[in-house]
Design brief:
The protein is an all-alpha fold. The protein contains 4 helices and no strands.
């Protein structure tokens, strides 16, 4: 998965929950710019950051092996 794809998925999940970028950032204890950069695919977040965002969005992370 590319960072752009990840960003799109997280943005879709955020919008589906009705969260603004500001709300998600506050809930994740991150800056708004961090969320924006992740959603725009400009930043490759560590797994811990993705896990925190998914936890707030009540989403799951699945890692597939080839």
């Amino acid at each position: 998965m590319t960072r752009e794809e990840l960003g799109n998925i997280l943005a879709e999940q955020r919008k589906a929950k009705g969260y603004s970028i500001r709300t998600l950032a506050e809930q994740c204890e991150m800056s708004k710019s961090t969320i924006v950069h992740i959603e725009q695919g400009k930043f490759s977040p560590r797994i811990e950051i993705v896990d925190k965002i998914c936890s707030v969005l009540d989403a799951e992370i699945t890692i597939k092996t080839r």
